[in-house]
Amino acid sequence: MYFVVVAGPAGSGKSTFVSAISQWMEGSGLDVVKVNLDPAAEVLPYVPDVDVRNYITARDFMVKYGLGPNGALVLSVDYLINYVGDLRKEIDEAGGNYALIDLPGQLEVVAFRRLGPIVLKELAKGCKSVVAFMIDSHFASSPHSSYSALLLALSTMYRLNLPMVLILNKADLIASPQMSGESSEVRVKPFMLQLLSEYYSCVASGSDVFFLSPEVNEELCNVFREVFKDVVLVSSKELWGVDEAYALFQRVLAGGEDFLTEEYSGGPQRSD
Ligand SMILES: Nc1nc2c(ncn2[C@@H]2O[C@H](COP(=O)(O)OP(=O)(O)OP(=O)(O)O)[C@@H](O)[C@H]2O)c(=O)[nH]1
Ligand SMILES: [Mg+2]
Questions:
Q1: 203: which of 57, 128, 157, 239 lies 20 to 30 Å off by Cα?
Q2: Average pLDDT for consecutive 10-residue bins of the chain (272 residues)?
Q3: Whose CA is nearest to atom 6 of ligand 1?
């Protein structure tokens, strides 16, 4: 089984993406285990096969320890270390080609706290994993928010130490699908894509950053280009771009093997 860990800032569309890509994958003959790892989730846009809330909820921690919503979430994820074996057992029993892990929105759970990465490591033990880092396309539209979002992604990558694919979600807000519905015609190319392209001058992008010299800024830009080679525009709401996201996962996890890998479940095959 392969693991896809869906991470990203609050509200970037992680849960909606899990719903969208699982629909697409299941429609393409793959078995998917949808795992809600967010103890604070109230309503989910998919029906989880494995749900952390059967063990722990952030609400219980608020009541029991008199914590606010953020403190309760962070503590409840720490407590997950006690249930990670049970969760993994449930995932294995559900059986599938892919486990999609829907993380909580508080990014510090994985980017800064001690136990979040340990929980994930234990959960995916022995299985190849990739992180799908969701960024709201609006944040990819300007230089400063692009740098900031990429630094968050980099922090997450440092902590999880796993390969990462960037998903610029909510692309329907800046783009529209072509008539064929198979690919997207981008009305506005998000700044982040320009930044990550070798044809763009990094010097220009950081000319107004007061705390970095142009040379250091250029180096930072080069780091991003070195690290984030896999970026895809997705609309989880309008269900486009998810096939490209899957292709990226497949490339990272199965080394470029095509759609039907040894992980194939035996369901109907895609014709294209
Ligand atoms: N327009 C548009 N809206 C989207 C898309 N994906 C998600 N949304 C909306 O963004 C909001 C947040 O989506 P969620 O999937 O709950 O985001 P999340 O990252 O799981 O949120 P947290 O778990 O709270 O961090 C919802 O109102 C979604 O309908 C998209 O591709 N396009
Ligand atoms: Mg969510």
A1: 157
A2: 96 98 96 96 97 96 93 92 96 96 91 89 96 95 91 95 96 67 58 87 73 85 93 96 96 72 41 34
A3: 13
- Closest ligand (CA of 16): 1
CA distances, 260 to each of 50, 77, 126 (Å)? 25, 35, 21
The DSSP string of 101-132 is EE--S-THHHHT-SHHHHHHHHHTTTS-EEEE
Domain boundaries, the chain: 2-254
DSSP character at residue 240: B
Query: What tokens does 179 get?
Result: 């008539």
DSSP state of 234: -
What's the fold here for domain 2-254?
Rossmann fold (3.40.50)
Closest ligand 1 atom to Cα of 235: 31
Q: Are 205 and 144 in contact (CB under 8 A)?
A: no
